[in-house]
Amino acid sequence: MDSYEVTPRTRLGRLAKRGAYDRGTVHGILDQALICHVGFVVDGHPRVIPTAHWRLGDTLYLHGSAASRMMRSLATGIELSVAVTLMDGLVLARSGFHSSINYRSVVIHGRGRKVTRAAERLRALEAFVEKLTPGRWAELRPPTEQELKATTVIAVPLAEVSAKLRAGPPVDDEDDYGLDVRAGELPLATRAGAPRADPRLKPGMPAPAYLADFNRRFTAPDG
What's the pTM value of the predicted model, to 2 decimals? Predict the structure, then answer.
């Protein structure tokens, strides 16, 4: 199937026309974003933690220290929500009420699973490095057993998932279009700066191509 099943938890209520459930849209947002926010409840108290994420097929992966409260909690299979947002610009309307933000977002509901098989865990960690810097995994020394032991990887199935997007100019009240108020859009974008070498880098090592091309990942759909 090209789209995710719509469930009571993923069906959008307000502004449902902005919703999207197709895999292409959902995967594109998850793959471009570098940070997600994970929500869960521990001891009756809500927690929301920002962390890195990545995707392989219909599975989202998270990782962290084996000693962290979030990793230990998610490993038990508790309910969680994951939110990812890309901000594309400000929408400057002729009134505060209609001013807005252009964005692309994904929300995931479900339960995580601790990855225990060594092959899957190593493949997942490789995919994380390759998401950030394609081609870099082959340059790195392999992780040690101690490093792997100290790292927990959580797999979250993309079963209950939806995207929500806003794009384009403001939508004002008809009577407001004649007002002497500047209106329109202010595009916003994330851009990587010039690579900075480690002061202890061996002499004569140029910046790899994946750093020179890094900004491609931040390109919004309209360019």
Answer: 0.92
